[in-house]
Amino acid sequence: MFIGTKKPNQEKINREAKINKARAYFAMLSSGESRIDSEVLYLRIKACLEGAGVGYEALDPNGKKTGQEMLGDIERQCCIKKAQQIFADLATTKFFDIVDTEIDLLKRKMKKAKVGYEVLDPSGKKTGQEMLAVLEHRCRENYIKKAQRVFADLATTKFSDIVEVEISLLEKALKKAKVGYEALDISDRKVAAEMKAELDRRVKKNFICAARSDFDGLSKHQGDRFLVNSYLNRMNKKLKTAGVGYEVLDPTGKKSAETIEKEIRALLPDESVSRPIPGFRTVRQSLACCGK
Predict the structure, then answer these.
(1) How far apart are the C-alpha atoms of 12 and 169, rounded to whole Å?
(2) Which of 79, 168, 257, 272 is within CB 3.0–4.6 Å of 113 for a Cys-Cys bond?
(3) 29-43 per-position pLDDT tens digit
(4) CB 44 within 8 A of CB 13
(5) Torsion 124-130-132-135 (CA) sign
(6) What is the pLDDT of residue 176?
(7) What is the 3-state secondary structure (H, E, C) of 234-289?
């Protein structure tokens, strides 16, 4: 009997248990079937090996590979598992907002692991061509979801201050998905022409909302010639893009374009004694660009 001390072989048993646990985690990493994140599995492997006081070579039960070779296998399997996780995520469209980033990361992980698209199938039954087709389908669904999200946002005017950016995102998403405007209809009932007309209506509403915001800014900074010029240029550009006149700046719809123009001119600084700022339109030129 040993009192207060471990049995002579207990330390060896504990070490072997930790090595076996590390090997089990490595097997989970290699199989691609575990739902545990690859980085977590790697950290668990590392902790078990450090606890056992051994290197990565202990992961090879045959004792043929070096620690560097086994570490390379771990890194390769981490890349493959990460690619598989991204591939699975793309099926849910939950990351549609960063789909480009996800696709780029997936391809970089596959390139680092030096593998083809066939590894995206954990069962190993499908070819690289088949998995590439599935990947392209999932990417297309994500791009469509992204375009539909932007289309929905444009109905609210909450992003009216960056409407140009939103339109660009929508158009790029549709182009990458290789679909037309009909894809914006989640009910799948309307044709492309109908959805394009609705998109134009929403875009116009956003430009008008943004122009009104600039008009408010113009009113608040009437004493600052630099800001007046900036607000006026932006406002006129948005009105021109929307194809409307100054009358839309009145939310009540009671004032005419001429009345609004008089209000704008009253806010302008007297340029008869001011030197033009190089690189900027004068406020009179800004009015002229809108046909005023």
Answers:
(1) 60
(2) 79
(3) 887 667 788 889 999
(4) no
(5) negative
(6) 96
(7) HHHHHHHHHCCCHHHHCCCCCCCHHHHHHHHHHHCCCHHHCCCCCCCCCHHHHHHH
